[in-house]
Structure formats: C-alpha cells, structure tokens
Amino acid sequence: MKNILLTISYDGTDFCGWQRQDANGVKNVRRTVQGELECAIEKLIGFETPLCGSGRTDSGVHAEGQAAHFFSPIDSFPVKNYIRALNAILPRDIRIVNAEERPMHFNARFNATSRVYRYFMYVGEDADALINRFAWCIHFCPNIDALNEMAAFLKGEMDFDAFSASGDKSPSKKRYIERAQFFYERFFPSGKEALVFEIEANAFLWKMVRSITGTLMNLARVNAAPSAFKKVLDGKNRKDAGPTAPPTGLFLYKVNFDGIRRH
After folding, report:
1. pLDDT band of 263, cuts 50, 70, 90
2. 3-class SS at 107?
3. Most C-beta atoms within 10 A of its C-beta, which of 18, 63, 79, 140?
4. How far is residue 119's CA from residue 93's CA, in Å, rounded to a whole number?
C-alpha cells in the first residue's frame, strides 16, 4: 500500500467546485473536481477509493497547485507513472502536475501548513475571451501602493468575521495570515499584465479571499485611505465590507507542507 500525494491543476469554470456532491444515494450528481478525479483513480487501480484534498474550492474557482492524497494498493506501479496514467483518463480541464509518495500517516488537509491563493485582475475596458475566463476585468486603474498599504494590515492571527459568508459554519473565524501583497505579472496566454493579489494563510473561510479582494477594490475605486480597510477589518461586520469578487479570477496557487503549523 502506498500513500500518493497529487498536485493538481484545473480550470474551475465548468465545475461545481472541488467537493464531490452526492444526493439521495446517487454519486456525483453534479460535476466536481473531486468526483472526476475519484472516477479516474477507480478506473486506474480497479476499485473505489476516497481522495482527500487540502481544501475546497468553490464553483468557478481554479487551481494551479491543489494537493490531494489517496491510498493505492499497487506497490509495483512507479509513483511518477500516476501523472501520465491519470492524465490519459481525466478530462482536459483537470491535469495532474506531480505525484509523490508520502508516509502512510500523511494527510493532505491536516498536514498542510499554509495555502496560497492568487486573485487575477485585468485593468482595462475590454479583456479578450481567454482573459475573461481567468481574470476579473476592472474598469479603472487602482493605486497599487495604496492597495499594498491596505494589504499590510493582513498580517498575523485575526478575526475575519467581516469577510465571512453567511453560510460559513466554521466554529472560529480566526485565521493566521502569513503575508498579503499586490503586484503585476504577465498573464498567460495573452502576455498582457494582470494585477495580482496574493495571500497566504494557514486556512481560509468560505469566500474569504473573494470578500477581501472585493472590499479592497471597492475602496481603491474611491481612493479611500488605507485606514478605511483596517476599520472594516477591526469592525468585524460583513455589512461594512465590499462586494464579493467573482470566482473567475481566483486560483488556489500552492499548498505548503514544510512551514510552521499555526493551529
């Protein structure tokens, strides 16, 4: 028996999120990333086996480096061969980027020390069709220095009630932010520059990154002082925050397993 850790990339546009959705005893009633992966693994190893992800992504959210593990009974099968074998079965909007063996006690969710998300925005009046699939088109040019002053308040452990969705059932709204920053980066495949918001934390609340992004851009649109964002953060009231940014531009960029485990 081997414990296999997969690194997974997917275009989330046509998925109802990461988590498999079953109803009334029927499996995979909606198309999900986990559901597609578990079907592919079953075809490869010959029987049903659960896949445990490092976290969930919502409908329309993408991933460059999602992490998930499963147990395979095929000891003779080289681990790296899972990359090509699974990609031959999976639909084109899911790709296995890497496969590696981990100790039997390893868990992709509970051993993760941090998750890194990137939110991509295209600054301009018109974005081409491919950019529209993977970025949020904003029709103004924000002050990146002011945005980074606001993002600097996102550091350490704090309460994120102001950025939690109404349906979030997390017992605690506290999360530990390692870093948050804005920068420009060339955007594949057009080569145009995108404004990127990158944030790393031990974990995230449901729609938390999108709520923070929407609030920051709402404040940047009216040239608000950086202290306005801290006021929203300290106020812990969702009504004071801005709109939730669309899922289009959000990517689970990387999952880390070698950092400090905060809690």
Report:
1. low
2. coil
3. 63
4. 19
- Residue 9 in 3-state DSSP? strand
E strands, 62-93, where? 62-72
Contacts of 88 (CB under 8 A, 6+ apart): none
Q: What DSSP element (H or E) covers 29?
A: none
CA distance 40 to 32: 13
Q: Are 54 and 257 in contact (CB under 8 A)?
A: no
Q: Does residue 58 carry a catalytic annotation?
A: yes
50, 7 contact by CB (below 8 A)? no
SS3 of residue 229 by DSSP:
helix
At 188, give phi and psi (nearest 5°).
-75, 140
pTM over 0.90: yes
The stretch 236-241 carries a mean pLDDT of 91
Which ranges of 90-184 would DSSP assign to H, the alpha helix?
129-134, 144-151
Among residues 11, 14, 22, 58, the one annotated as catalytic is: 58
Cβ atoms of 65 and 254 closer than 8 Å = yes
Examine residue 189 and say whether the peptide bond preceding it is cis (omega within 30 degrees of 0): yes
